[in-house]
Design a protein that fits this description.
Elements lengths: L1 H6 L4 H28 L6 H16 E2 L2 E2 L10 H4 L14 E9 L9 E4 L2 H9 L15 E13 L2 E13 L14
Antiparallel strand pairs: 1-2, 3-4, 3-6, 5-6
Length: about 180
């Protein structure tokens, strides 16, 4: 009698197929939603880029706490010396800027400031610094800036002296949304 009971249940397949399609629809909507959330993410890495460039510059011109002697030469090219791309730091790209100031322990400049990149970024960095009254301009689309300061040792007239290196780096390279077709927008 039980065998006959199992053989005559042909209607169960019809009810199961409705639930099967409902599960497929839920999984499909979940997959499409996850893909849309991933591809619409806008990640701002300007601060991280500025920090990386600042670290690369300070590591390049200061080795083990000593200022590289080549930096004090008149014909010093920081882009060539640190293997940085002239194209990325060009005025036309409008994406990066850096300024390096070297001074001795008394605060006197050791050489002229080393400047490279889109100069408007320096103004944007200056506007974002807090003033004595505490006010500063904040804007979503301004460049993100990193100020860093490193003390170093150097030789002058065969005497060991200390100095200070201040580096300002700004990045205005806005990230792009990832396109589902493979290219940026």
């Amino acid at each position: 009698m039980q065998l006959n009971f199992l053989r005559n249940k042909k209607g169960g397949e019809k009810f199961l197929s409705i639930w099967w399609f409902l599960v497929l629809v839920i999984v499909g909507i979940g997959t499409v939603g996850a893909v849309l959330m991933y591809y619409s993410a806008n990640i701002d890495v300007r601060s991280d880029e500025a920090k990386i460039v600042s670290d690369k510059l300070s590591d390049c011109i200061i080795n083990n706490g000593f200022l590289s002697p080549a930096v004090l030469e008149d014909k010093f090219s920081v882009l060539d010396y640190c293997n940085l791309s002239l194209y990325i730091f060009s005025e036309q790209q409008k994406q990066f800027y850096f300024k390096i100031q070297l001074s001795d322990e008394a605060g006197k400049p050791l050489r002229n400031d080393i400047l490279q990149g889109y100069t408007d970024i320096q103004r944007q960095c200056d506007w974002q610094k807090p003033t004595s009254t505490g006010g500063a301009i904040t804007a979503e689309y301004y460049a993100k800036c990193i100020d860093s300061s490193v003390e170093f040792l150097y030789y002058k007239d065969e005497e060991l002296k200390t100095g200070k290196c201040e580096i300002l780096v700004g990045s205005n390279q806005n990230g792009q949304k990832i396109s589902s077709t493979g290219g940026g927008q």
